[in-house]
Amino acid sequence: MGFLEELKALVPGRVLTKEAELAPYESDALTAYRRRPLAVVLPERKEEVVAVVRLCHRHGVPFVARGSGTSLSGGSLPVEGGIVLALNRMNRILRLDPKARIAVVEPGVVNLEVSKQAAPFGLLYAPDPSSQPVSTIGGNVAFNSGGAHCLKYGMTANHVLGLELVTPQGEVVRLGGEGLEGVGPDLHGFFVGTEGLLGVALEITLRLLPGPEAYHTLLAAYDSLERAGEAVSLVIRAGLLPGAMEIMDRLSIEAAEKAVRAGYPQAEALLIVELEGPKEEVAEEARVLRGVIQESGAYEVRVARSEAERQAIWKGRKAAFSAVGRLSPDYIVQDGVVPRSRLGEALREIGRLSRAFGLRVANVFHAGDGNLHPLVLYDGKRPGELERAEELAGEILRLCVRLGGSLTGEHGIGVEKKAYMPEMFAPEDLLAMERVKAALDPKGLANRGKVLPEEVHA
Amino acid sequence: MLRPTTPQEVQEAVLTHPRLRPRGAGTKPTLSSPQEGEALLDLSGLRGILEYEPEEFVFTALAGTPLGEIEAALKAHGQYLPFDPPLLGKGATLGGTVAAGLSGPMRHRYGGVRDFILGVRFVDGEGRLVRGGGKVVKNAAGFPFHRLMVGSLGAFGVMVELSFKVFPRPRATRTLRATMKGLEEALRAVEKLRLLPLDLLALDLLPPATLELRLGGFPESLKARLERLKALLGQEEGLEEMEEVAEEEAHWQAVRDLRFLEGSPIHAKVPAGLSRIPFLEGLPLGPRRYLDGGEVLYVGLEEEGLKALKDAGIPHLVLRGAQDPLSPKPQDPFFLGVKGALDPKGRFPLR
Description:
The structure holds two protein chains of two kinds. By secondary structure, chain A is of the alpha+beta class. Chain A has 15 helices and 18 strands. In chain A, helix 1 (3-10) packs antiparallel against helix 3 (46-59) and helix 12 (343-357) runs antiparallel to helix 13 (385-402). The longest helix of chain B has 15 residues, at 219-233. Chains A and B meet through helix 6, strand 9, helix 7, helix 8 and helix 10 of A and strand 7, helix 6, strand 9, helix 8 and strand 14 of B.
């Protein structure tokens, strides 16, 4: 029996091989990259995933695990001749234990669903990537997804307490546990963010937190992007720790207005600051924040007086991404990180690059943690424009590294940024990653071609 | 004894010794005492803060830097280490804290050491200097070797440099002590408190029936929050507030330094959790305290107590008073793969 026949026997009726069936799996949210897999498998139980991984190992067939395919770095791009393990059907919350404040979930569970199920207990799952209504926990784990609240609450890795996974060689392993602390190496913490190169998560134990009692949400308008960036520094210098701080530039404000009519003021830059916590504490912090924002040169300030007004402030921000997308036939989004105090410098330089390359760049970003999200707008039908956009995006990445930041805050390296890894990491660093990969996956089957640059050896 | 003062000297030491045992300040002797055939690698010479940008909420320091030095630098800018590293007052170092994976009572508010580590430079078993993570609060690039170091006992390499996230220090703190009728009632109270958005700095259980709750924030808001907390606990008697500011601070420093364990020969950390506490309370344990809403137990033990933990198959980490720190030893293929890749010759602990 050949590989495909064995595969079909393992997962009867749920192996896709026809061209039309495979097409939706050829790419993820980074649509510039496409690969036709040999087959797509739709497991429903973890035993099936394990069996498929073992079969792949035996036959030396590469595999890519995939959730909803929202990766912006090409993290779930298939490998030609390999298979895709589409895990969306493994979408059960196996246990939600409010006493222990944990949820045990399958990898195909959608991020937002965890918070929905936890809400009746007053609990939430903190990581909130913009993709959270669609993206799955398995994908979030692979890419250590973030969101708007990372400065205060950390990223996915900080909310994963334990994992069951299958290694690329087909061994089933449990890492971590159900508590906030264990003993021994934090192997589950290490697994999170390795982008599927070291195995496939089968079950994930998540930390749940009590939702904040009160919010204070403020919108401030500035006549320059740098001033908004400076305001963020003032907030931090005042000793405040907001749950979220977000900045939008004029292009994204206009796009958001067009798309959802958020009712934002006209401005070169908008800053959203959200405080959260016990109501008395939030009231005191709000008093400090008011002073800081007054000092920061904002020419219009709005404070949400109700949950509806709060939602209105967030509505435009949440829509900004897709709204900007509509301004242009195509766009590339980067998510480099710079030290917060270099935000102004970074934005100035991005503006300069945008003019130099003759391409529009919109900025919507998590200002609290220095995580930029420049959207490079281009038209793929115009010859050479994609290449120019990619080159511009690359310059932005180099800029982030040069300023002491990172290539990616939350989207991951994937295929898209692997060529830039040597800009951020020394050959020894990359060799250490390669050695770990080779030890756990000697045949190089798990998410082949991602993260690690082709040529490490300097 | 080897006492390197630069990462390069650490690399040389690693390459010239088949087996090593790194030590910071030696505050956790079970982890840092050389075993048969091991050379002691004293890292106290790798000391000093390399970068600290208060506005970034980030610092980078050499691994042998005493926590006290870091705390003082942060305090001067109104910041602190939210994971509240234990044994700070005893001289514990940053690297030792990461290697042991220890966090103190205030971990309840924002999380433990694993939630604040951002980056590492370490010397692997082949003498190579490797960096993982970064120096910014958000970063998803490359394999996160920094997280691998937490609780590793130095198994994958010798940490030489670490980067951490820090937060603004609470402007003021208050502490309430509540004495319940018994363990069951105390556990019910903890369970209830854990589900509420109270933003407590610390929530400790001193068995059988005492809770200690610490609040931090603006002095103006603390009074009202404290009153609400009292009403929530729903009892007039058995509630006691630590009135003196200096006394309150000193109390928590003593807890953080694990002084309550001092009369016991063996000191251990045990991952607990509310559902496991009733069982643990049936074992012959010495002086002890459950931190973070019952999540983690620091306990003083006699031989009998340690044996009871082992016999019951309860995972634990011995800091002092025994030969082997970690039970059980990790032996799964994932651990062995990573260990083999970074320390193929078995120079470091957990070989």
